Amino acid sequence: MELTGPRWKGKGFADTALANPMSEIVSRLRTSLSPSMPNALLSGCIALLDAEPEAADLLERASIGQNITTFGGQCFQLGPVESFYLYHGLTCIRISREDGTAMAESVLWHHFCSQRKTFPELYKAYSHLRSKNWVVRSGTQYGADFVAYRHHPALVHAEYAVLVIPENDGKASSTRLSAWPDLCCSLRLSGSVAKTLLILYVSSCSRDRSSVCSLDEFTVEERIIRRWIPERSREGKCLAGDDEAQ
Amino acid sequence: MARSGGRGAKEGEEEEEHHRNPFLSNSINKPWTSKTQFRSEVSKACWDEEMGMGEIMEKKGSMWATTGIIRNGKLYCHIEEILFLAERGAVILTSADGKTINVGDIYKMILGSKFGSSWESFEVYRHLKSLGYIVQRYGIPWTLKNDIICCSSNSPSENNTRCFEISNLLQDMQISELKPTFKVYLPNSKFRKSSPGDPSFLLCLLSGNPPSRSEVENLEKKCDGLPLKFCYVDHGREDCSAHKLDACVLVMICSLMGGIDLWGEIRHDDGSLVFCLL
After folding, report:
1. What residues of B are in contact with residue A131 (Cβ under 8 Å)?
2. Quick one: three-class SS letters along chain A?
3. pTM above 0.90, yes or no
4. Distances (CA, A) of B139 to B161, B162, B184, B191
5. How far apart are the C-alpha atoms of A245 and B181, rounded to whole Å?
6. Is A229 in contact with B260 (Cβ distance < 8 A)?
7. Burial of B8 from C-beta contacts in 10 A (0-12 / 13-18 / 19+)
8. ipTM
9. I need a surface site. Which of A156, A208, A210, A220 has the fewest CB within 10 A?
10. CA triplet A106, A107, A109: central angle to 5 degrees?
11. Contact B64, B80 (CB under 8 A)
12. What spatial distance separates the first Cα and last Cα of chain A, rounded to whole Å?
C-alpha cells in the first residue's frame, strides 16, 4: 500500500486539527505549567504527575503521558522520555523521588540512563520529533521504538513507525536493520500496519554520555525506507502525496 | 489468473508470494507463457568480442527507440539488452564468423560476468524492461556527441556524459564503493535517445547487506540529486517460474519530514516531497 498522507479517523477531523495546531497546544501547556512547576513523583521508570484541570486538558490534547485519573484528581503517568521532555525540554515540571526529595537534572539523567542504555538516543529522537510538532507515542505495539502522529491520536492514524538507531562516529552501534531479513521484516510489518518506516539515526561524536549536556552534541538524521513496487509505479506517481490523502 | 478466486481483491495489500500450483492442469498456470509475445519480425545482431557488445545489423520493431546506444552512427547493445530481446525471439545474435549464438549460449556469456552484467543485474533489467521501463547502464550515455558540441547543447545531464564515462572507469577501480547499476526512465513512448532527459531514478544493485547510512550518503553525493533506489535480488523466492523475479526492491528516500504544524504544508527537506494538508 502506498501511504501518501494522513489518514484521519473521522470526517472533519482534519479541520479540527487545523484549528488546533500542535505547536500552540504544546506552548500553552508550557505556559500553563511553568508558573507553578508542579512536581511529578518518580517511581522506577515512570513518573506520576498531578495536574490542574487546565494543564490536564492540555496534556491530553498534546497526548503526553496517560491519564490515569482516579476520583478527585487528574493524574498522569509519564514514561521516561515524556518525563524528561516535560522536565528538560519544556522545563515546566519538577521531578522528585517518592520520599519527596527533588531530583537534580544530572541525577535524573543518570537515573534514566541506568534504566535503559539507549535513553539518550531515544530521548533525542523523541524531542526531535516533538520539536517538529509530531505527536510521539510508544511504538512497541508496532515493532518500533515510537510511532509518530500528525496530530492527536484520536484524530488521525500514526503515519510513521520510528526506529532509532544509535551511532557512534558514524557507525551504527547496534546491528539493527543491518541484514536484509531484518530490514524486510521491519518494512513489511510497518507496511501491514499502514505506517511508513522512519529511521532516525542519532549520532554523537563525543564519548561522554554521562551528562545532559551531551544531548546538544547529538545529531539526528531522518530517513524513510519504503518498498518500491515497479508494477505499481509505472506512472511515476509513487510518492507524491497529492491524491489519496483524503 | 493463476491465483485462486477472491484473493485478487486484496487490493492495496502487499502481494503475497504466489507459487505455481503443480496440482492444477497446466493451461492457466503459466504466467510467463501468456506474457511472452514472440516476434514475427526479427532483428539481427553481431557480437563484437572486443567491445563486449552486440552491433545491431538489421533493426525491426519499435524497441530500438529505447534499446542500445549509438556510437559513430552504429547501434550497439549490451549483453543484457541482447539477451532480453533474444529471449523474446526479437533478435538473433551471431558471432563475427556468422554462427548463430543461441539463447542458451547467451545465458552462459552472462553467467561469466565478463561483459559488465551479472545474472542478478540481468534479472533486474528484465523485470523492469518487461514492465516497460526504459533502462540503460549507469554512466553510459545513449549517444555520444562530437567533442566540440558536447558542451554546448541539450540538457545539462547530457553535457557531462563523456566525463561520466571516464569517472566511471575510475570508480570501477575502487572496488568497495557502491555505484549505481542502471539509470531508469518511466515508460514513455516519446523517449528519444538524443534527448533522454534525466532518468527518473538510479538503481543500485546490492548483493551484500543493506547499505549503511554513510554508504547511502556518499552515493547520493555522487548522483547529482537524482533519486536512488536500492535493489536486492532474493533468490529464495523464484519458484513461481524461471522467469519471475521476486526481487525485493527497496527505496530509500533521501530525507523527509520537515517540521509539521497544521498551519500550512509539510515540506520535505530535500524539496522533493511536498505534502499539502487539505
Report:
1. 259
2. CCCCCCCECCCCHHHHHHHCCHHHHHHHHHHHHCCCCCEEEEECCEEEEEECHHHHHHHHHHCCCEECCCCCCEEEEECHHHHHHHHHHCCCCEEECCCCCECCHHHHHHHHHHHCCCHHHHHHHHHHHHHCCCEEEECHHHCCCEEEECCCCCCECCCEEEEEEEEECCEECCCCCCCHHHHHHHHHHHHHCCCEEEEEEEEECCCCCCCHHHHHHEEEEEEEEEECCHHHCCCCCCCCCCCCCC
3. no
4. 7, 9, 12, 18
5. 34
6. no
7. exposed
8. 0.75
9. A208
10. 65
11. no
12. 15
| Contact criterion met (CB < 8 Å) for A229 and B212 | no
Grid cell 556527441 is found at B145
> What single letter denotes the amino acid at residue B187?
P
Work out the burial of residue B72: count CB atoms within 10 Å of its CB; fewer than 13 is exposed, 13-18 middle, 19 or more buried: exposed
Q: Which residues in chain B are closer than 8 Å to A233, comparing Cβ atoms?
A: 186
A241 backbone dihedrals φ, ψ, rounded to 5°: -95, 45
Q: Decide: B213 and B199 in contact? Cβ < 8 Å.
A: no
List the single best residue of A160, A192, A221, A224 to mutate versus B (max B Cβ within 10 A): A224
If one counts every other C-beta atom within 10 angstroms of the C-beta of residue A160, the result is 28
Tens of pLDDT along chain A (246 residues)? 455 678 999 999 999 999 999 999 999 999 999 999 999 999 888 999 999 999 999 999 999 999 887 666 789 999 999 999 999 999 999 999 988 899 999 999 999 999 998 999 999 999 999 999 999 999 998 989 999 999 999 999 999 999 999 988 777 777 888 888 888 888 889 889 999 899 999 988 777 777 888 888 899 988 888 888 787 778 876 443 333 322
Q: What is the DSSP letter of B190?
A: T
Rounded Cα gap, residues B265 and B278, in angstroms:
9
Residues shown for chain A: 246
In this structure, the number of other CB atoms found within 10 A of the CB of residue B163 comes to 11
Residues of A tagged active-site: 149, 157, 195
C-alpha cell at A59: 496534556
- Read off φ and ψ for residue B135, nearest 5 degrees: -130, 135
Contact: B14, A191; criterion CB under 8 Å? yes
